[in-house]
Design goal:
Layout: H1 27-48, H2 56-81, H3 89-106, H4 109-133, H5 138-160, H6 164-168, E1 184-185, H7 190-198, H8 205-216, E2 219-220, H9 221-239, H10 241-251, H11 253-258, H12 263-289, H13 301-311, H14 316-334, H15 338-361, H16 365-384, H17 390-408
Antiparallel strand pairs: 1-2
Length: 428
């Protein structure tokens, strides 16, 4: 009798999940979300008469404010995808502002950009040495870098900008001489056409024209470079074997090492790139936004960049949306937007009311009731006033940061080994 071997099919490979159990947003869905947000802003503008909410000037300012926040967040994304928390982004941005302005006023603004990137990378290297090689707590190392960067730039600003040729050209202990402009581009003809449509104040149509006009008018080449870096980051981290190895270091470094990945090398690369991104954001502030280094000009944007990265769930697309939101809020204070912020209170009422209804429907009675009470309070505030105090306008970016993080906290999924100490040889 001949025995016939029964072939048993191998077990199915387990499905690789992002870990959050949620479906990623497709591009059409993202476009619908953007269109819905713009529709809501159009309704707010039509009801309140706050024409600046969707004006080309507001959008242009929001774009300029979003770039340094987005670059800082992009730096945080590189580091945390490799498992290193980079609280030192603020300090690396400070180094970028200082070195960018220092080189920019003496040579050319593009050499200033390069110097700013190198300054940020030096901060990243210091953070990598402390956290990767010596196993220092990531938060402590980041805070130390922020303090060191502030002290370093304060000292050398007094030394380099307050004497000789620098002082003669407008330098002082707290600021550098001005640097030349980086070239800006405008699409000829189209910008004027969109501006003419915006002036009619048609519902939605004029708002779309204002948004598009702000995105194509006087756009710095450095802004275009920053947008390209988001695309490059996505491609490198999610479409290449290098990116897969780097992300494996942030998910399970022991398993990565057991497969032959040099975890230390990838962590070093990621954190140094992280510092370079933050330094580029700092150079943008000193060479594009203001053309000078000014003490304290980062204004916490490194921390807001981290918040944008968390809001974006550690992915470039979500980070870009978060940076745009925070940049929009930042631009309101830049343009003295008391009337615009007051108009947006009405939008906040609608969002909180919808959130309250959803939470109550899901039987989350405490959260639903709290959202309803806050919505009622904001509505009373809106009806009882015509504008908001200047102090509140100045605090708008930070309030938006807290609101967004509190509302999005439940859907977040950080890399599994993010912030954990790793010692070489654990995978053997």
């Amino acid at each position: 009798m001949t025995a016939t071997a029964t072939s048993t099919p191998p077990p199915a490979a387990p499905k690789v999940s992002g870990g959050s159990g949620r479906t990623r947003l497709s591009f059409p869905v993202v476009l619908l979300m953007v269109a819905g947000a713009l529709l809501a802003l159009s309704a707010v503008r039509a009801i309140t008469g706050a024409q600046d909410v969707t004006s080309a000037g507001q959008i242009s300012a929001a774009l300029a404010m979003a770039v340094p926040i987005g670059l800082a967040g992009l730096g945080g994304l590189w580091a945390e995808r490799a498992g290193v928390v980079n609280i030192g982004l603020e300090g690396m941005m400070i180094l970028g502002t200082f070195f960018g302005a220092w080189a920019g006023w003496q040579t050319s603004p593009w050499l200033g950009v390069l110097a700013g990137v190198i300054g940020g990378m030096l901060g990243g290297l210091l953070h990598a040495v402390a956290t990767v090689t010596f196993g220092v707590d990531h938060i402590i190392s980041g805070i130390a870098i922020n303090i060191l960067a502030l002290g370093f730039t304060t000292y050398f600003a007094k030394l380099w900008f307050n004497t000789g040729d620098a002082a003669a050209k407008g330098g002082s202990p707290k600021q550098s001489p001005p640097a030349d402009d980086i070239t800006s581009v405008t699409i000829p003809g189209v910008s004027d056409w969109l501006h003419s449509i915006e002036k009619h104040h048609w519902f939605f149509v004029s708002d779309v024209a204002g948004v598009l006009g702000g995105l194509i008018t006087n756009v710095s080449l450095l802004t275009i470079l920053a947008a390209a870096l988001f695309v490059v980051t996505f491609f490198v981290l999610w479409k290449t074997s290098f990116g897969l190895r780097l992300r494996s270091c942030g998910e399970n470094p022991v398993a990565a090492e057991s497969l032959g990945v040099n975890v230390y090398r990838y962590k070093y690369i990621a954190v140094i790139i992280s510092g370079g991104m933050a330094g580029l954001g700092g150079a943008f502030l000193s060479l594009v936004t203001s053309h000078i280094y000014n003490e304290g000009q980062t204004g916490g944007r490194g921390y807001i960049g981290l918040a944008a990265m968390i809001f974006g769930n550690w992915r470039p697309g979500g980070l870009a949306m978060g940076a745009g939101l925070f940049g929009f809020a930042d631009a309101l204070q830049l343009r003295n937007g008391g009337e615009s912020v007051h108009a947006l209170l009405l939008l906040l009422v609608v969002v909180l009311a919808a959130l309250a209804a959803w939470k109550l429907y899901r039987k989350s009675f405490v959260q639903g009731t709290a959202s309803a009470v806050i919505a009622a309070a904001v509505l009373v505030w809106y009806l009882a006033t015509d504008t908001v105090p200047t102090e509140f306008v100045s605090a708008t970016p930070y309030i938006v940061t807290l609101l967004v993080l509190s509302l999005s906290a439940q859907r977040l999924r950080m890399p599994k080994a993010d912030g954990m100490r790793y010692r070489k040889g654990q995978g053997k």
